[in-house]
Structures are given as C-alpha cells and as structure tokens.
Amino acid sequence: MGTEENPNLEPQELWQLEYNKARLRDVPFETMSGVPVDPVYGSEPYPGQYPFTRGLYPSMYRSRLWTMRMFAGFGTAEDTNLRFKELLRNGGTGLSTAFDMPTLMGRDSDSEWALGEVGRAGVAVDTLADMEDLFADIDLSSVSTSMTINGPAATIFAMYIAVAEQNRVAPNQLAGTIQNDILKEYQAQKEYIYPPRPSMRIITDMVKYTTAEMPKWHPISISGYHIREAGSTAAQELAFTLANGFAYVEAAIDAGQNVDEFGRRLSFFFNSHSDFFEEIGKFRAARRIWARWMKERYGATDERAMMCRFHTQTAGVSLTAQQPENNIARVGIQALAAALGGTQSLHTDSFDEALALPTEDAARIALRTQQIVAHETGVTNVADPLGGAPYVEWMTDEMERQAEEIFAHLDDLGSGSMLEGTFAGIENGYFVGEIADAAYRFEREVNSGQRIIVGVNDFTEGDNPEDRNLLRIGAETEEYQLKRLQNIKTDRNQDQVDEALTAITETASDPTRNLMPTIIDAVKTYATEEEIANAMEKVFGTYVERAIV
Amino acid sequence: MSDPQYRVILAKLGLDGHDRGIKVVARILRDAGMEVIYLGLRQTTASIVAAAEEEDADAIGLSMHNAGHLTLGPKMMEAITAAGLDLPLIIGGIVPDEDAAELEKVGVAAVLGPGASAEEVAAIVRDAISSRE
Q1: Which of B8, B16, B18, B23 to mutate: most A Cβ within 10 Å?
Q2: Which residues of chain B neighbour A189 with C-beta distances below 8 Å?
Q3: How confident is the model at residue A5 (pLDDT cuts 50, 70, 90)?
Q4: Last residue of a domain, one of A12, A37, A63
Q5: Is A190 on the interface with B (CB under 8 A)?
Q6: Is residue A498 within 8 Å of residue A126, measured between CB atoms?
Q7: Radius of gyration (Cα) for chain A, nearest Å?
Q8: Count of domains observed in chain B
C-alpha cells in the first residue's frame, strides 16, 4: 500500500508509515514476563504489502483481533431470532445464520423430502414471513449478517433485502456475506439444485446486482472448508478453492464487470486441520497466490482486489467420537494455526460434534478456546510471527507449487480458461475423484495403524460413553412450521404469486436480464422458496451427480 | 478373503449430502470382496427398495449425518418390510448410542459409529448378512 505515492522508500519504511497510521488496541505489546516486542520481525514483503504472504494489514491483530464468528441456527425463525438478540445484547455485531437442510436444498418444510429435517441442523425458512421473524426487532442497518446458503442463495438474499425494505433500510445500507459458492457444491458439499452453468448465471446476476446496489455486501464466500471436510489434502483444498475463485472472476469479467470493483468484495473460507505447519503454509500461500493471479492474470490494479480475506473454521472431520474431550485440544491447536496463518475470522468447533449437534456448553468451550489463543498466548502481538522460519517458508512454497500444478491441469482442461476448466473438472468427475482418493488413502493409513489418531487406534483406554450429555431436538418445530406455512399459503394472494413466478421463468430464459429484481418481487408475494426454485428449474433443469465411488 | 460374494446396496437417503463416509465404506466393502452398488445422493425409500430388488441385493447400507436417522431409519425399515424383502439394513454415520438402540428395536440390523475400523465394518456387514441365511 502506498507504493505509488512513495516510490523512493524502502519496503520497511513504507510498512512503518502504514503501521504508524493504524489504530492499535489498548493492551501492552509485550511478553507475559514484560519484554516489549516489535510489531513484526524479519524481512520484506512486510505485512500489508503485496503479495500479502505475511498478512493483509500492516498492524494485523495489534489493531483488531480476528472476528470470533460462531455459526448458529436452530428450530423456528422465532427461536433463532431470540438467540440473535441475545448475541447482540452481549456486544456481538455480526450474525451468522445456519439454515436447515430443506432450506439449503430449496425445499419447503411441507415437501416430502423435508420429513425429519425441518429445523434440525439450522433454521427453517420457507417464505418471507419466516425471514421477517428471523430478523424481527434487529436494526439491519447496523449489523453485519452472514448467511450460509448456496443453491437457493438468490431467494434467501431477496428475502433479506425485502425484510430490510419493510423496515425502511435501503439495500445500500446492508452489510454482510452470503456464501453463494456453488462450484464447491458440485465438488464437495453437494447442495446444488441446477447444473453448473445456469447456477453460474444466477451468481453472476447477484454479483452484478450487489456491485450496483449494495456496496457493503460480499456476494460470494469462496469456500475450501467443505472440500477439505470431504477428504481432500491441504494442497487440494487450497488449489480447488482458489481455482473456483478464478472461475468466478472470469465469469464476472465475461459479464462486463470491473475486476477491481467486484474483486474487493470477494472473500474466502478455509479449513484449519491438525497438521500445524502444513495449515500455516497453506494460509500464507493462499494470500500470495491470490494476489499474484489477480494482478498478473486478471489485471487488477487496486490492491484491495488482490487481497485474500478469509474466514476459518476448525476441522469438524478431525473430531473423534471416542474420548470426545480430546477434541478440545485438537480445536485449540487448529485455532492457533489459523491465528498464526493470519485469518480474519474464526469459528471453533465444539468437542461433541462427532456425536451430535453441539450443546450450548460445548459451544461455549469452543468460543473460550479461541479467546484463550487471542488473549493469553501472545501470538497476536506480532504479525506473521513464523515468517522467515525455513520450514514455514518451505511449506508455503510447497503448498504454492502443488497448487500451481493443479491450476495448470485445470487451465489445460479449459484450454486456457479456468472457468471452463472448472466446469470440465466437475463434469468429468476430476474433483470428486481426487477428493475420494485422498479420503480413502487417509482412512487406510489410520486403519493400518501407520497414522495414529489418539483415542481411536491407539491410547484407547478411558472412554466413558455413559457420561455424555447430547443435544436433542424435538418434533415440535416441524409441526409448528408446517402449520405456519399452510396459513401463509391460505392468506396470500395466489394470482400475485402465480404472476411473479411466471415472471421468474421468463427472466430465467432470457440471459440478458438480471434475475434478482424478479426474485425480490416474488418473495414479496410470499411465494415459497421451493416455488421460486421450481420456477427457475423449468428453464435450468436439475443436476444429478454420477454416483462415483 | 471372502467366501460367497455378497451384493450390498449403499445409498444416501433424503437430502443429506455428506458422502465422504459412505464412499470410504464402499471401498472397504469392495476390498473385502463384496460387490457394492452405490446409488448416490438424494435417494428415496422407493428408489432404494427398487434397486435392492433389481440387483438381488444381500444388504442395504445407509449413511446419515443430519440427525434424520430416527425419522428416516424406521421409514426405510417399513419400506423394506412392505416390499417383502428379507435383508439386513445397516446404518452408519452420526448416530448417538441411545438412538442406535432405538433403531435396532425397529429392526435395523446394525449401526456403525464413526471410527469403526475397516475390519469391523466388513465383519459387521458380513455377519448381518450371514445371520439371515
């Protein structure tokens, strides 16, 4: 930053100038024993300098700790609204919404597919009425909201915009993120509705809409988390995620968007697993690769469009059902790797997640774990404290080298287009095959005892299954939600709904038009999420994965 | 390593898309000499029963990670019984112990927890089939 204004300064001097401008937290930057420490050690590039290997900001956590964003959602919209308001009363400024499985798949609570799933793994949203309840009495102009949804993201996003409008909050005042990363759904999480190309059209429409109307909104969070959970290696997680990012960038550029404008608003989401140095190398490599590609391949000139901002979550898949308390140690180590890797926000998993959805007590311990890393270990005093260590630098280079090999393969598959290469890799089973192979290799190593998982294949004494206190969710939510949906369908003006749905189908068949305004109109008639999904499905069709083992 | 060649249908029932575990199980059973027919995601009780009939399967294995097992497990058992199929249903995934007991009460042959070894997985499936013969 600032290279253009001060061409004659050395990187160290430039960094110092920027550091001096930063507002710092009011805490002593010294060790527990009172030894003062510098904000950074080692050599260029300094934190905040291209290609950002050492962190995005000159003062890193001295100015602002990572955001401790814990993901929550359960039961009815009213239940989750109470939880949101409690979070805000306790000083939280960010909300993070988990939706239930039917909502994530574009199905209503009364669909036969929804049986047994309503309100279980998140909150159920069928119509605008649920969204009104979810955000009741919350000032949407002052909170930032994260919504984890992909296949039907445009509809849920439209509902959020409509609720804000009812409360006289204009779209340009809304701040937040919608995950909206459909490519990784075909590769790993499998929550898709339409085939890849029409899905990309919807996302491009959303990017256009937010770029024009919603300057504070992040329209995609490009996610490697699920790729890793599905079994990939660290380098595959890194490469597939960034390749998906390149695909979105190419799609937006093809649609006439300015790379500097939308590039600033892309963000990422990575996994933090247990191999400490591999993870740190991965995070550092992610920033460096993204900056280089954005600048050199896609012609970004604004440094903010070259910054790989990311959220991190500890590895759910590393948690064991055996001796589950051991998971607290695993999460602590993974959280520390995320901090040393320079994450912007972090969710720490609860130790009981291999057994059931987390209890409140377990979720609190998870939050406390990252608070301990932030406030007790001293790692926040110095930016990129491991930078310059031979092993860490080698690992960073190695992660980058492996990722570049994968990019070369995809670029080749797409004849010079990462977008086409990614589509091709989805269609020919490349991604799912690579992930399944890596997952099986890992399981074989554990099974043969070559790789020790404490409490699972060694050190197995001391498991007390009878002591466990697990979260149970009853059937009341489903009954309540079904009744509510039935009432809304009776009370709404059906002609208006039908007209709005027809408009969506027409807009879907005309690629020159943007779907967002018609979807916003439709949600206002209380058309359901599934009705809107079906209106687009008429044009886009559905996606069925080939079952490959 | 195997005596008769068993045919096992594996499937994900309902909306749950977590397929890492079931794909690993598919390879484990294959390595143990069984024939595996993986139906993939988003199957219904009807599509699973139809496949089991068509393939003349010896067992059905489901994997569940979304807390839907107490609803979907019994539904699958009903569909198997209604079709007059005599084969074991085995469920794997995130299933708490008390729920496993409940599932076994409605006729589920076995519940595989996370962390079961490859030998355990293969042995449980083989035993569930051979105990019916």
Answers
A1: B23
A2: 17
A3: low
A4: A63
A5: yes
A6: no
A7: 23
A8: 1
Domain assignment present for A35: yes
- Which chain B residue lies closest to A455 (C-alpha atoms)? B115
Structure ipTM:
0.85
Q: What is the pLDDT averaged over residues A109-131?
A: 92
Within-domain flag for A365 = yes
Structural domain that includes position A220:
179-380+390-448
Q: Per this entry, what is the length of chain B?
A: 133
Q: Omega of the bond prior to A51 within 30 degrees of 0, cis?
A: yes
Statement: the pTM of the whole predicted model exceeds 0.80: yes
- Judged by DSSP in three states, A186 sits in helix
CA-nearest residue to A106 within chain B is B15
Q: Which residue of B has its CA nearest to A115?
A: B71
- B91 domain-assigned: yes
Nearest to A107 by CA among A97, A98, A117: A117
Distance from B68 to chain A by nearest Cα, in Å?
5
- Nearest residue to B120 (alpha-carbon basis) of B130, B112, B109: B112
- Is A471 part of the contact surface with chain B (CB cutoff 8 Å)? no
User: Do the domain assignments include residue A143?
Assistant: no
- Residues of the domain holding B37: 7-130
Residues A216 and A341 in one domain: yes
Nearest by CB to residue B38, choosing from A114, A230, A547, is A547
Residue A191 contacts B, CB cutoff 8 Å = yes
- In angstroms, the CA A65 to CA A374 distance is 7
Any domain includes B22: yes
Residues B80-118: tens digit of each pLDDT? 999 999 999 999 998 888 899 999 999 999 999 877 889
Share of chain A above pLDDT 90, in %: 85
A1: confidence class by pLDDT, cuts 50, 70, 90: very low
What would the two tokens of residue A144 be?
């930032």
Q: Is B27 inside a domain boundary?
A: yes
Output the 3-class SS for A223-246.
ECHHHHHCCCCHHHHHHHHHHHHH
Residues in B closer than 8 angstroms to A113, CB to CB, are 14-15, 42
CA A250 to each of CA A200, A246, A268: distance values in angstroms, whole numbers, following the listed order: 11, 6, 17
The helix or strand, by DSSP H or E, that contains position A276, with its residue range, turns out to be helix A276-292
Domain count, chain A: 2
Among chain B residues, CA nearest to A444: B118
Over residues B35-82, the pLDDT tens digits come to 999 999 999 999 999 999 999 999 999 999 877 899 899 999 999 999
**Which among A191, A321, A356 is the nearest to B17, CB-wise?**
A191
Position A2 pLDDT exceeds 50: no
Q: Which of residues 47-76 of A touch B (CB under 8 A)?
A: none
Q: Answer whether A429 touches B (CB < 8 Å).
A: no
Residue A243 maps to which CATH number? 3.20.20.240
Is position A94 within any domain? no
In order of A98, A228, A473, B44, B112, the CA distances from A122 in angstroms are 5, 22, 11, 22, 25
CATH code of the domain in which B56 resides: 3.40.50.280
Token pair 């960094």 in the structure block, residue: A15
CB burial readout A77-104, b (16+ within 10 A) else e: bebbbebbeebbeeebebbbbbbbbbbb
- Residues A18 and A2: their CA atoms lie apart, in Å, by 8
CB pairs under 8 A between A and B: 94
Residue B3: per-residue pLDDT? 55
Residue (of A405, A305, A309) closest to A67 by Cα position: A309
Q: Chain B contact for A189, CB < 8 A?
A: yes
Is B103 within a domain? yes
